[in-house]
Amino acid sequence: MLTATGAPAPPTPRGPVSEVVVDALRGGPVRTVEPGDPYGDDLQLALHCCYELHYRGFAGVPADLEWDPALLTLRRELERAFLAALRAEVPAGDDVDAEVAALLVEPTGPHVRGVSHHLRRAGELWQLREYVTHRSIYHLKEADPQAWVIPRLTGAAKAGLVTVEHDEYGGGRPERMHATLFAEMMRELELDDTYGAYVDRVPGVTLAEVNLMTLCGLHRELRGASVGQFAMVELTSSPGSERLVRGMRRMGLGEAAVRFYDEHVEADAVHEQVVRRGVLAPLLAAEPELAADVVFGIRASLHLGERLGEHLLGSWERGESSLLP
Amino acid sequence: MENTVSDPTRMTLTDEGPALVTGPVEIELPDGRRVRSDRPVTALCLCRRSRRWPICDTSHRTKVRETPKDEADEEDDPC
Q1: What is the mean pLDDT of each run of 10 residues along chain A (325 residues)?
Q2: What pLDDT, on the 0 to 100 scale, is given for residue A73?
Q3: Domain boundary among A61, A88, A115
Q4: Is the Cα torsion angle B10, B12, B13, B17 positive or negative in sign?
Q5: Which chain A residues are closer than 8 Å to B65 by Cβ?
Q6: What is the pLDDT of residue B4?
């Protein structure tokens, strides 16, 4: 259900909090509500809806709801609950070099647990399609959450981050935008590439990963964490993409389907270097006090990534779908 | 009018991995083949381990083999 501007219909609520937000999207009052489980489907869907107002909005929802004070107040409560849970679960640290060095070590062998390892070794096509469905929440707006951080940086770190973002957006060629390549892969896999099409099918654990990106992007206070999250993705994506390419070829998928992850093997090998030398180094030289936030961004995004990975692998091991019915 | 001299191409050699070249670049290989990269920065493989040589694919990274406690090396898997 799309309007001419490409905005999806509001999703179906999953509990009291998302009900309040979806009601508000439809013109209702923003009622007082307890945030509930910070990782739960209800809070994460509510937060997703609040954030989507800053991206493409929803069909039939007035654009100025983006700055509705009551909705922003509720959003702040949800963000605080989510952040408090992350801060409690993610150990603090401020050694960015050690964090980066750890990300650059690749575990190998038949016993490494991970979604890309599984899909390379033995994953089935239906599992790959589910993986791509989960990832579509981010990749159909790839690089957008990190674009919020650009005006919050200065000098070399800003220039370095924009270099990577420019590449994500196709280097000036719309047909090479990573979001466009992802949509093409979805169609090759006979999935719906409509923006927002699968929001109702993915659990809170999937939405949480993307919500963290937006949370860190929209708050200048969290700009260090935004850069950390960005660094985590760029540093780990190349080997993971290579495993997915090999898995997809093993499944007999053609080049048009493989192109998205194939592009990321090379692109993210470069992005790793630019992020380390051109973003992290100048950012920490200029603002050394951001080191703890950078580490938080790295660890929090790893933490949510592991939760999502466990959800996928656990569901598949039980022979179940990882998607909502 | 001032004469303008274009900036030289910058190449950065990294300790552990590829050489970074700015701007679009065309690489001629020993067999005469040419590989073109239009990226703002291209990472050229110097360690020769890349499956996409001459382009870096992060194969230079340190690898640590994960083995479960009781069933080491039951199956070989280089990556």
Answers
A1: 69 98 97 94 98 97 97 98 98 96 91 95 97 98 97 97 94 93 97 97 98 98 98 93 96 94 91 94 97 98 97 98 97
A2: 97
A3: A88
A4: negative
A5: 107-109
A6: 62
Q: Which domain holds residue A77?
A: 16-88
Quote the ipTM score.
0.81
> Does residue A129 contact residue A191 with C-beta atoms inside 8 Å?
yes
Contact: B41, A163; criterion CB under 8 Å: yes
Q: Which two tokens stand for residue A247?
A: 């898995």
CATH number at residue A128: 1.20.910.10
- The one-letter code for the residue type at A143 is A
Beta bridge mates, A73: none
Q: Which domain holds residue B38?
A: 9-60
Cβ atoms of residues A5 and A194 within 8 Å: no
How far is residue A118's CA from residue A126's CA, in Å, rounded to a whole number? Answer: 13
Q: Are residues A66 and A97 in the same domain?
A: no
Give the pLDDT of residue A5. Answer: 58
Residue A117 corresponds to which amino acid?
H
B13 neighbourhood in chain A, CB within 8 Å = none
